[in-house]
Amino acid sequence: MSKAVTPPEGNEQEFYAKRAKVYPREVHGLFARLRTAGVLGLLGIFYGAPWLTWGDRQAIWFDLPGRKFHVIGWTFWPQDFFLLALLLIIAALSLFFFTTLAGRLWCGYACPQTVWTEAFLWIERRIEGDRSAQMKLDKAPWGGRKLVIKGTKHTIWLVFALFTGLTFVGYFTPIAELMPRFFTFQTGGWETFWILFYGFATWGNAGFMREQVCIYMCPYARFQSAMFDRDTLIISYDENRGEPRGSRKRGVDPKQKGLGDCIDCTLCVQVCPTGIDIRDGLQYQCIGCAACVDVCDQVMDKMGYPRGLVRYTTENAMEGKVTKVLRPRVVLYALLLLVLMAGLLYGIMSRNPVGIDVIRDRNVLFRELADGRVENVYTLKLLNKSDSLREYHVEIRGLEGAELVIDRVMPVPVPAGGVVELPARVRLDPVVLDAPTAELVFIARVEGEPDAGNERAGRFVGRMR
Question: 91 and 177: one domain?
Answer without folding.
Answer: yes
